[in-house]
């Protein structure tokens, strides 16, 4: 049984972030896989955001634009709030075939090498620990 603890959808791109009740986080994209006729939902990234401590993601947000003017990173990110009060910003990692397709401006994989990026460590860019209660929303 899988419990979804939070979810966010990008308003312009076919991108979805889901937090699961065991602390795992998954990023999905809708694209046409190599050799397929129609676009489908594909998991493109996954990792344990709870740090094996049971810290469950309770709020998710995907910014419309990249953080590039006031922040030090110029990449696609998503933000998660946790039951512990922690807030973290993560980098979106794409399989090489999907990244090449996005570079052409379309959402399709350029080859069959479109397996999800499953990382042992969090692709963490920034985090904040000063919350005293569960994060309910991130904007």
Task: Describe the protein's architecture and organization.
With 139 residues, the protein is mainly beta. The chain has 1 helix and 9 strands, in the order E-E-E-E-E-E-E-H-E-E. Strand 6 (77-82) and strand 7 (87-91) form a beta hairpin. The longest helix has 8 residues, at 96-103. It is globular, with a radius of gyration of 15 Å.
Task: Quickly list its features.
139 residues, mainly beta, four-stranded antiparallel sheet, 9 strands
Determine the number of helices (DSSP H or I, runs of at least 4 residues): 1
What percent of the residues sit in helical stretches (DSSP H or I)?
under 10%
Mean pLDDT: 80
Structural class: mainly beta
Number of strands: 9
Give the distance, in angstroms, between the N- and C-terminal Cα atoms.
29 Å
Question: How are the strands of the biggest sheet laid out side by side?
Answer: 1-2-3-4-8
Order of helices and strands: EEEEEEEHEE
Radius of gyration: 15 Å
Portion of residues in beta strands equals 35-45%
Largest sheet report: 5 strands, mixed
Which word captures the global form? globular
- Return residue spans where pLDDT drops below 50 for at least 5 consecutive residues: none
């Amino acid at each position: 049984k899988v419990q979804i603890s939070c979810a966010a959808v990008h308003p312009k791109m076919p991108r979805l972030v889901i937090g699961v009740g065991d602390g795992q986080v998954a990023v999905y994209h809708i694209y046409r896989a190599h050799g397929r006729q129609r676009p489908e939902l594909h998991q493109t990234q996954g990792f344990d955001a709870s740090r094996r401590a049971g810290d469950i993601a309770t709020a998710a947000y995907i910014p419309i634009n990249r953080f590039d003017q006031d922040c030090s990173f110029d990449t696609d990110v998503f933000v998660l709030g946790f039951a512990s009060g922690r807030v973290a910003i993560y980098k979106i990692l794409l399989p090489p075939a999907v990244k090449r397709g996005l570079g052409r401006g379309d959402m399709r994989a350029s080859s069959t090498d479109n397996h999800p990026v499953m990382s042992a460590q969090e692709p963490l860019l920034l985090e904040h620990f000063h919350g005293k209660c569960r994060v309910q929303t991130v904007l």
